[in-house]
Design a protein that fits this description.
Rossmann fold, Translation Initiation Factor IF3, BirA Bifunctional Protein, domain 2, 23 strands, seven-stranded mixed β-sheet, 492 residues
């Protein structure tokens, strides 16, 4: 997909309608996000403005994660955006990994700086320096901190949410007295990410460890959750890193242990960005636009009155009563009382924005004490898409439907992933599946970077993650002894 560099460039090809998803996922994705007013392009290359509807999605995702972080003992903090070059250079592997993406500040006002400042690509460096001040004894450990912030990476090709120069994310950073404890933290946070991806976003993932080539710069081990998009490409949705003592040694995070010996701490980092929203949108959307999981949707239900001459007042009063009932029950609801648009236009508008439930109220509904509820997760015209619910007890009926929509979206996505996760036993089958971009392809693998480089050169695919191999086997690619069961795919 060509990079959109400015407001003017995008206006020349202004989206009139959402194209079919299957024909071109990239065009569908951009059009669906833009038409739903999740974002807009800015004059800053590779950077977007997050509009209120899009920011509400991020806030809901943020709230779901933040609650889980705090339930596992973490607290939020904030660290500076700028990192002195001399500090960044103290961790050689980290610098080498991020060097091509770092943005630098060279001037302050009209004065040239004596030392360049890196614009935060991630915060291990500045946090490591501060932890070195805060940790003196084993009694100071563990430190369990999360940050909600923005970072900058000088990307060449960008796409809203999936890859932008500046993006929103969370990054957790912890320090521990032992490697065993830090590894428990790595696994715990990876499970939090899996839970949020699957139970909140309705997006099934494959969990495992990254290969040496795909590992986070400076880490001993990197673990990830990987989703599969409708075009057969994988999307890394979250990572959790075992940093060992590498950063602690580089930034002197030392403590006096119970045995009175001075030791280096064991540290971790883990992060999820708004990329998870992009994956959720691609996973669930259809030709009518977005389909949002109810847990994340800014509005879980929209009420649309169906006017009838002479009954407008009664219908509006009934709609307001329904709105109040649902709002008081903790359901995020919107009453669309715009009189400049007809009901059919509103139906399409809210379908495009992905609202899980549409509540229709007409004159007959008022007379009979019912409302008509339409599920967004169902095909248009499907027999089970439209349900009549009594106003009495409406709250529980709507909650049940929201739960059903949440489950339905996940089940559809799970079926897609399961049907596009292939096991290949021969080299020919493996390469054929990857070249056709059929999905994730799982093989017995030697875990050798040279072997992975060969696969990438021939197919553009890389390992997404891997798990230990429980039986003896040979690598499907090179024939040497296999060490892991690895998933390969092209990726975003």
């Amino acid at each position: 997909m060509a990079e959109e560099t400015s407001v003017q460039a995008f206006d020349e090809t202004l989206v009139k309608e959402i194209p079919p998803k299957a024909a071109d996922l990239s065009k569908w994705y951009t059009a669906a996000c833009w038409k739903a007013e999740l974002f807009d392009y800015t004059p800053v290359r590779g950077s977007i403005a997050l509009r209120p509807y899009g920011y509400a999605l991020w806030e809901n995702l943020q709230r779901q994660m933040d609650d889980r972080f705090k339930a596992t003992g973490h607290m939020n903090a904030y660290f500076p955006l700028f990192i002195p070059e001399s500090l960044l250079m103290r961790e050689a592997a980290h610098v080498e990994g991020f060097a091509p993406e770092v943005a630098w500040v060279t001037h302050g006002g009209n004065e040239k700086l004596t030392e360049r400042l890196a614009v935060r690509p991630t915060s291990e460096v500045i946090i490591g320096v501060m932890y070195a001040r805060w940790v003196q004894s084993y009694r100071d450990l563990p430190i369990l901190i999360n940050c909600w912030n923005n970072v900058v990476r000088w990307e060449k090709a960008t796409r809203p949410f999936l890859r932008t120069m500046e993006f929103l994310w969370q990054e957790g950073h912890t320090a521990h007295a032992s490697h065993e404890e830090s590894m428990e933290e790595v696994a715990r946070m990876l499970e939090v990410y899996r839970e949020v991806a699957e139970d909140v976003c309705g997006m099934p993932v494959v969990v495992g460890e990254k290969s040496i080539s795909e590992r986070f710069a400076g880490a001993l081990h990197t673990y990830s959750i990987e989703a599969l998009m409708p075009d057969g490409k994988a999307l890394q949705a979250g990572t959790s890193h075992d940093l060992g003592q590498n950063f602690a040694k580089a930034y002197d995070i030392q403590f006096v242990d119970r045995d009175q010996r001075i030791k280096h701490a064991w540290t971790t980092s883990w992060g999820v960005s708004w990329r998870m929203l992009g994956g959720m949108i691609m996973t669930h959307g259809d030709d009518r636009g977005l389909r949002l999981p109810p847990i994340l949707a800014p509005y879980q239900a929209v009420i649309i009155p169906i006017p009838k001459k002479g009954a407008e007042g009664r219908i509006a009063a009934a709609a307001r009563d329904v709105r109040d009932r649902l709002a008081n029950a903790g359901i995020r609801v919107r009453f669309d009382d715009r009189d400049e648009h007809k009901p059919g236009w509103k139906f399409s508008d809210w379908e495009m924005r992905g609202v899980p439930l549409r509540v229709e109220i007409g004159a007959r509904d008022v007379e009979e004490g019912h409302v008509t509820v339409v599920r967004r997760d169902r095909e248009k015209g499907a027999r089970d898409a439209k349900i009549s619910l009594p106003v009495s007890g409406l709250e529980s009926g709507v909650r049940d439907l929201l739960d059903a929509v949440q489950r339905g979206l996940y089940e559809q996505a799970r079926e897609f992933l399961d049907s596009h996760l292939f096991d290949a036993s021969t080299r020919e089958e493996f390469f054929d599946l990857l070249r056709r971009q059929a999905g994730m392809v799982r093989i017995a693998w030697c875990d050798d970077p040279d072997c992975e480089a060969e696969v990438k050169a021939q197919t553009s695919a890389t390992t997404r993650n891997q798990v230990p191999l429980e039986t003896r086997a040979t690598c499907v690619v090179c024939g040497r002894p296999a060490k892991t069961l690895a998933c390969f795919a092209r990726s975003y």
